[in-house]
């Protein structure tokens, strides 16, 4: 799986990595149980501080997407807990995207198609 | 015998400056990804932008060509001059003059960066990382690089023991000459090994969404580097041993100079083969390249020196030429930069001093 880091993005680097790993798990690019690189290896590869990668992994662990242990490092969880609800933060993001699309004259059907494509 | 000294200097200088000119001032700047260390941009090729771009490129290329021509002509002229302290100093200064070809390159870099601002080209800094191949792609077999350097070490130990009379034999050359020569080449070996390991641990390149292509591409590139450093190490070790044997049996300066000429020629051939191999890897994977690293041009001072405090890596792939360079914002990079500058400036001052005091003799 390829991670794209934009150093001029408004989104912090730890969040860029987190978002792309979540998308990777959702799309199946990262399979359940798949080993993730160690904090040090990933930090060296991207050229960022190990604390940044550590923060990403802690966040992903807290959100239930990955599990970490000293022996095996970080792995994608076999079973991800499905709450069945959209978080308030995501609702807000979705609302912003829908609003921007509407103001740009993008039709509802186009948005629905995109959701079908990404889901 | 003085013709040998001139031949060695000529073989070192002329192919090097021609190679540097060819690498830095490519024939088709509009078709390359990088021009003087600045990423090409469509805005460079529209209306006024194209005019200014052409003027900058043409001026820098002419500058590079003039400097290259001067160095080549001076080298040819020097072939016909007798070797004295003064001309020897001139030869040595010509070696350092190789760096002058970087001046028009740096000027072109600064002018293109100004043009970017003028054309309103926004900053970009995108990097890609392949999670699958993180820290798993290596090509250097340590044994192959350690073996020649162990031989070089053994050769040096033998030379030191001979010079200090442990074996009860006396070399043909003057006392401690064997030790000085061996230690000099052992020093080169001590530099080659960490650089080889550093290159093998460099970040894997991401050119495709397919992880296997990325892994194969990185492995192929690292293999060319591993082969180059292994060849360097063998050439270094064999030269050290052969030269030690020569110096032990004969005091003939001609024999030593001939072997030095051979060593220089071998190093040149190894470098040329390394560059050809790198180019072959690039062209083999050109069709598979769909992702491109677009790191910020502003992190490259004069398009040559990488300075990025936000990047924790020490070595990064070069923009000019082949191989890696150090991140001068890294603490170790700062030390390397200062030490290199001190060695270069110190060597020039030392040579001028030796010549002024009449100690630079042939």
The CATH class of the largest domain in chain A is identified as: Mainly Alpha
Number of strands of chain B: 7
Q: How many distinct helices of chain B? A: 9
- Whole-number tally of structural domains of chain A: 2
| Biggest sheet descriptor of chain A | 2 strands, antiparallel
Structural class of chain A: mainly alpha
- CATH domain fold name of the largest domain in chain A: Arc Repressor Mutant, subunit A
Question: Can you walk through the features of this model?
Answer:
The complex is a heterodimer of chains A (119) and B (362). With 119 residues, chain A is mainly α. Chain A folds into two domains: 13-76, Arc Repressor Mutant, subunit A (Orthogonal Bundle), CATH 1.10.10.10; 88-118, no CATH class. Chain A has helices at residues 13-27, 39-46, 50-62, 88-103, 108-118; strands at residues 2-6, 66-69, 73-76. Chain A has a two-stranded antiparallel sheet. In chain A, strand 2 and strand 3 (73-76) form a beta hairpin. Chain A is globular. The two termini of chain A are 18 Å apart. The mean pLDDT of chain A is 91. With 362 residues, chain B is mostly helical. Chain B has two domains: 2-125, no CATH class; 142-344, no CATH class. Chain B is built from nine helices and seven strands. Chain B has helices spanning 2-24, 47-79, 85-97, 102-118, 142-163, 177-200, 211-249, 253-284, 331-356, and strands at residues 34-35, 38-39, 126-130, 300-301, 305-306, 315-317, 324-326. In chain B, the strands form three sheets. Chain B has a two-stranded antiparallel sheet with strand order 1-2. In chain B, strand 1 and strand 2 (38-39) form a beta hairpin. In chain B, helix 2 packs antiparallel against helix 4 (102-118). Chains A and B meet through strand 1 and helix 2 of A and strand 3 of B.
């Amino acid at each position: 799986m390829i991670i794209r880091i934009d150093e001029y993005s408004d989104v912090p680097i730890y969040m860029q990595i987190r978002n792309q790993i979540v998308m990777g798990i959702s799309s199946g690019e990262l399979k359940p149980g798949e080993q993730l690189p160690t904090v040090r290896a990933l930090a060296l590869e991207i050229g960022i501080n190990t604390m940044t990668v550590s923060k990403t992994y802690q966040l992903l662990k807290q959100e239930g997407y990955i599990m970490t242990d000293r022996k095996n490092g970080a792995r994608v969880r076999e079973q991800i807990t499905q709450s069945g609800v959209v978080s308030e933060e995501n609702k807000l993001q979705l609302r912003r995207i829908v609003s921007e699309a509407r103001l740009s004259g993008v039709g509802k059907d186009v948005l629905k198609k995109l959701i079908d494509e990404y889901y | 015998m003085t013709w040998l000294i001139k031949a060695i200097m000529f073989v070192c200088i002329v192919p090097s400056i021609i190679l540097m000119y060819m690498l830095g001032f490519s024939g088709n700047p509009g078709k390359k990804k990088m021009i003087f260390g600045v990423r090409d941009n469509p805005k460079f090729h529209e209306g006024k932008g194209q005019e200014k771009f052409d003027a900058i490129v043409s001026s820098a290329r002419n500058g590079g060509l003039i400097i290259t021509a001067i160095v080549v002509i001076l080298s040819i002229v020097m072939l016909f001059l007798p070797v004295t302290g003064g001309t020897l100093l001139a030869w040595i200064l010509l070696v350092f003059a190789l760096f002058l070809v970087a001046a028009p390159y740096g000027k072109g870099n600064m002018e293109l960066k100004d043009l970017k601002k003028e054309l309103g080209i926004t900053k970009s800094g995108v990097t890609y990382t392949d999670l699958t191949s993180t820290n798993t792609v290596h090509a250097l077999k340590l044994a192959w690089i350690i073996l020649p350097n162990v031989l070089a070490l053994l050769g040096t130990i033998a030379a030191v023991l001979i010079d200090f009379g442990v074996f009860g034999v006396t070399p043909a050359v003057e006392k401690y000459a064997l030790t000085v020569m061996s230690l000099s080449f052992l020093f080169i070996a001590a530099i080659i090994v960490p650089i080889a390991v550093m290159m093998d641990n460099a970040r894997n390149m991401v050119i495709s969404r397919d992880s296997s292509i990325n892994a194969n591409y990185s492995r192929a590139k690292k293999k060319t580097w591993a082969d180059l450093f292994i060849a360097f190490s063998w050439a270094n070790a064999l030269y050290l041993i052969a030269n030690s044997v020569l110096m032990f049996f004969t005091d003939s300066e001609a024999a030593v100079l001939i072997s030095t000429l051979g060593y220089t020629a071998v190093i040149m051939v190894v470098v040329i083969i390394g560059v050809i191999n790198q180019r072959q890897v690039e062209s083999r994977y050109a069709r598979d390249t769909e992702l491109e690293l677009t790191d910020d041009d502003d992190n490259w001072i004069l398009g040559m020196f990488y300075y990025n405090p936000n990047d924790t890596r020490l070595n990064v792939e070069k923009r000019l030429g082949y191989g890696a360079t150090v991140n001068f914002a890294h603490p170790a990079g700062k030390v390397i930069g200062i030490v290199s500058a001190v060695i270069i400036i110190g060597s020039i001052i030392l040579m001028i001093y030796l010549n002024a005091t009449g100690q630079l003799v042939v």
